[in-house]
Amino acid sequence: MDTRLRWNHHREKMEAGASKRLSALSALAASTWGTKMVNLRQVYRAMIVPQMLYGCSAWHTPGKDRVNSSSELVKAVRRIQRRAAQIITGAFRTTAGDAVDVEAHLLPVQQQLEQTALEAAMRVRTTPMYNDMAAEANCSDTEKSPLDLLLAILQRKHGVQLNQLERRQPHIVPPWWTPPFTCIAPSAELAIKDHDEVETGSICIFTDGSGIDGHVGAAAVTLRSRQMSGISTRRTQYMGSASASTVYAAELKGLAMKTEWSAAWETAKHGRELFKLGVKPGKDVLSIHCNVHRAISSVITQMRTGKIGLRAYLHSIDKADTDKCDCGYGRQTVRHVLLECRNWTEERQQMWAGKPPCVDIKRILSSSTMAVQAAKMILRTGLLGQFLAVPSTVLTT
Ligand SMILES: [Zn+2]
User: Can you tell which superkingdom this protein's organism belongs to (predicted)?
Assistant: First the structure.
């Protein structure tokens, strides 16, 4: 028994499991041939995060002022996420956790923990069995159960009206059950086209939900129902006000976490090179990495964070004798190699490919198209030893 509720045993088990999975992740992430950055991110989010945060609603209560008995556990989660984000983005190990979170678009540990714990609390609160399983106690904050504390946060911070939440009847299906085929058409025209193409004989249910003036509703309709006696053809349901509806409450919470992340990024101490480029937490960061070779992804992150195998950085960590470039005109920085160095004029011309050159390093590194060209140019110089084995087909425009 963990009589003092320090969760040490749980932490050791969690760390051991996560480090096994992290080494599997890094085996997929070789810098010259490895899996694409977005796919590694997906593996991390699907395989490591759920295991790491298992039961976190029991061991983590969000809130700064509280003495958090689980802080060692939170530190461990932070270490794992930082390492994972470094593997995913191909950033140097010295790169700040705040910066790699933004580059890999991973919700920071503090916000992720809070979101997962609140989601669990919401699930408990919306079961019809809630009243039987957890009676609300009238006691001071220090004596409250983790569940009561989480519910208080939902109410106070996220404005969720607990007594008005929609109740959800648990619906159990066997693991081998396959859900009915669902399809969401991108536009009304395509939906009509899809509808006309469906073969007769199959049962189709059309459904939509909407929110107007803070009220949420849903409707489902099925045609060809004459064959199916006993099934009503149409059903509409008022789901309640936006803050009471569970789906909306969960989404509101997600939005609040993103806002908190942005605020934390503004004031963070580390990862400032990336911050100065104007890179903000957001999904659009991933669009740069979607269709490019892993080496290009990694070089983009390294250029943007300033932690890259060029002499200016290597010298600062005692890995190079000098920070000067071979050309003799200045320090070997990303800016110098991309825009100034005389040794790479041909590579530079290839980067601009006839287009008017851009001399604003900030714009180059924050634009998705230019950053990819810049990464290819740096790779063509062969200055980065880590990527020498990258196939040359990757580097052509
Ligand atoms: Zn130079």
Answer: Eukaryota
